[in-house]
């Protein structure tokens, strides 16, 4: 395995992309639009939705409204993809008419083995979307596909813009140079914004769109410092509230007041991802772990790449999607020349997860990572049987789960990780019946 070149990963925050506090936002948005016109580029923003959870239908609709400005940009398409049969009316009815819903994806089958790809799961959903996009035709090198989670409570459109703008700004041909040399050669983007867990009584925004981070800041001040003016009243119109820009604009005293207020209604999220980052950092003398440790939030569910790159990737199910995406982008032959943006954007918050499930998922995630890092995944049933770990009898054990008042014992069942193999590249899959 070869080592990626030194500038393979580009750490980029919103102050770098848009100027401090967004002072260059209009200029950069114009440059991106011009580059897309000049090169005939297209961006596909795909919000992945599944199941019949009304709460997630609501967050999907709000997210699409929060991204409305982006979908009105020429060359940018925003769609909702639904997995699980015809899209329910609870999802389609409240969506704005300009947001199409893709549903009834054909089932995929491995061309060589004939094995069907399961009809449920995020990776499986993503593969179905990629197959549909490839059937549309067009130059896959000039199409950039961003997949987004649908369960956000706090999320900003700048976070999405930061995933595809560097690709457009860095796109060049032999005849036409790129707009911004800092982003030359970008083919991949990984979302890396901080995840916050928001107090349940705060995490129910009322309105038509997903809260932005500035809305969360206002809610924190209203709860903890009710006499203080809102953040919006103290900042310029269109301000992008990055940490550095807030400190520079508000000054140390008001910044400390705001930080204290946010700490009272949130806590750090992404515990599994933070634990994974610690483990990888402890193994930085290993090639793969060294490069993966460069990314700020490995398990953030938003990532993008050219359609050509997506189509060549071999992706893993479950938590393996994000890890295998990066391993492909870093080490897969043919992709080693494309640079990866680690997008350090505004903090976000998801719908909460069950604590017991979170621990079980963490166990599965670490088992999966070891499979991926040490080559224990495989394609065919014969190789899979040879490389899989020895089966263990089903058993239960007690996990001491932390609560506000101390530990409580939670009985868990040992689960065989759902990570037996990587899926073939989507170009090696054929379509069957409808899912």
Provide a concise account of the structure shown:
This protein is α/β, with parallel strands linked by helices and 435 residues long.
Q: Tags for this entry?
A:
globular; alpha/beta; 8-stranded mixed beta sheet
Protein architecture, described:
- With 435 residues, this protein is an alpha/beta fold.
- The protein has 17 helices and 16 strands.
- It has helices at residues 14-18, 25-39, 54-66, 68-71, 89-92, 122-135, 157-170, 213-224, 231-234, 243-250, 252-265, 271-281, 287-292, 307-312, 320-331, 355-373, 381-387, and strands at residues 9-13, 42-50, 76-83, 101-102, 106-110, 143-148, 152-154, 186-191, 196-198, 266-268, 303-306, 339-344, 349-350, 396-403, 406-413, 429-434.
- Helix 2 (25-39) packs across helix 7 (157-170).
- It is globular, with a radius of gyration of 22 Å.
Secondary-structure blueprint of this entry?
Elements: E1 9-13, H1 14-18, H2 25-39, E2 42-50, H3 54-66, H4 68-71, E3 76-83, H5 89-92, E4 101-102, E5 106-110, H6 122-135, E6 143-148, E7 152-154, H7 157-170, E8 186-191, E9 196-198, H8 213-224, H9 231-234, H10 243-250, H11 252-265, E10 266-268, H12 271-281, H13 287-292, E11 303-306, H14 307-312, H15 320-331, E12 339-344, E13 349-350, H16 355-373, H17 381-387, E14 396-403, E15 406-413, E16 429-434
Parallel strand pairs: 1-12, 2-3, 2-6, 3-4, 8-12
Antiparallel strand pairs: 5-16, 6-11, 7-13, 8-11, 9-10, 14-15
